[in-house]
Specification:
Layout: E1 7-8, E2 14-15, E3 20-25, H1 33-37, E4 41-47, H2 52-55, H3 57-66, E5 76-81, H4 87-106, H5 119-139
Antiparallel strand pairs: 1-2, 3-4, 4-5
């Protein structure tokens, strides 16, 4: 099997390959005899408990809450790749996907600042409603008392 690369995060921190557990198995789907004979499906798992000294408690909590559906019962982040026909290509895809997931989970979201509509907006809105009302009044049929 191809050697497992270290994961380099966006902020420059490196998760060593020893924290990753890689398993290969037979993949389903089309591919002819290749599917029946070769173990190309790659399952990569990152032990979050072992990586806690790199992340720290706050970031570990953020990863666990943001990626909770991808974490197994043993507390490992799991990524599976089956889209390529070779084990090496699937390993690269799985590691790239795990890097992206970790970068997204660790990115700090900017707090939303609630805003209010301006006074000028309210004036414009009400003036537009008045114009529309006047237009509809002009369109209305007028009835004569004679008729």
């Amino acid at each position: 099997m191809a050697s497992v690369p270290d994961i380099v995060l966006a902020d420059g921190r490196v998760l060593p390959a020893r924290l990753l557990e890689v398993r290969a198995s037979r993949s389903g789907g089309p591919g002819g005899q290749n599917v029946n004979k070769v173990a190309t499906k790659v399952d990569v798992r990152l032990d979050l408990e072992a990586a806690s000294d790199i992340f720290g408690p706050e970031e570990s909590a953020r990863i666990r809450s943001g990626l909770c559906r991808r974490i197994d019962a043993l507390g490992r982040l799991r990524v599976v790749a089956v889209e390529h026909r070779t084990r090496g290509a699937n390993l690269e895809a799985a590691v790239a996907r795990m890097t992206t997931l970790l970068n997204l989970a660790l990115a700090r979201r900017r707090a939303r600042v609630p805003t209010r509509p301006s006074r000028a907006y309210h004036r414009r809105r009400l003036a537009g409603k008045r114009r529309r009302g006047q237009l509809k009044k002009q369109r209305a049929a007028t009835f004569d008392d004679d008729g």
